[in-house]
């Protein structure tokens, strides 16, 4: 804000009071015995390494200046049928205070009750407020709150109307309550905000860290930008970075405040995370290469012997004698498996018994599998997959594959390796990403 702006006498809109915090013009209003005002939590782009938006959040104090939770404010409003009025009041406060921030290009993320979108009067009031403040709709991200909508089709029509006006739409709290994949298809948001309940298990347990990147990838393929909210620790921040989220929000990056975020400090935090992620990725890749090296050597030797005419169940012994080797199998050039899996360890019979209907893979087609397609593209070279869920025993595995010539035909030799989460990997929030 310029000095000239600070010296200008502020005229508060009807029902609002104006004050100054650290030289910044700030609006508040009263609702019953509560004083309401706004704070803003920054939303960061990990790629741009800066704040690209601010979410408006309600703050309330009672007559004794004691803080009152926004949940309590809206809960009480819902009990007396006043929730849309409070929602509109919060919107107006956030718009006034956001304008006073002087942000020139950032978005305002505005939480909106579904009823406020479908009510023509409230929708018109929002548009009128924007015109008065000179804020174009493209600066506003409407967050559709995670609540049951009585008429989802009507809500979808309202969302489409706002998007046509230039607003961006965010689906809030995806993964919690009523926000799910169906709502993504029906509301077609520009941004999906992932609830922190999806984040926390991945930062704590390695098994969970492989789920989040898949979800982010799915949403990206659906044409949605992804924001992960509620990030509070470095482990959670690293997981968000590793799974390729577009935006992040949470106490780790910036707490709600009446002021704009310190650009230099936030850039330094994200730059540090990026470097930490790079170092962790390099360390993991080196560890995985070392871990796989004996399997690759044994597998290459098996392929050489197979090409020389030795039978499958003999050439795989050295590979299968390694601790985590699970099975070998052979595919033709169409991805069909002509023989049963070759398994050496007796203890696998017990493990496989739970998935007995899947144990006989003779005649199965693995044409769609990446390990087959990669081997066919680059014959005579061992291919290594990323960890994935094996259909044989519903456990994580890595598959080695190599296309080789056996007489006059091309065949693809494959070997599965059980992929356990090692103890040192469990300290990495993105061990399996």
Automatic annotation (TrEMBL):
CDD domains: EAL. Residues 17-270 form the EAL domain. SMART domains: EAL. GO terms for molecular function: cyclic-guanylate-specific phosphodiesterase activity. This is EAL domain-containing protein. The lineage of its organism: Bacteria, Pseudomonadati, Pseudomonadota, Betaproteobacteria, Burkholderiales.
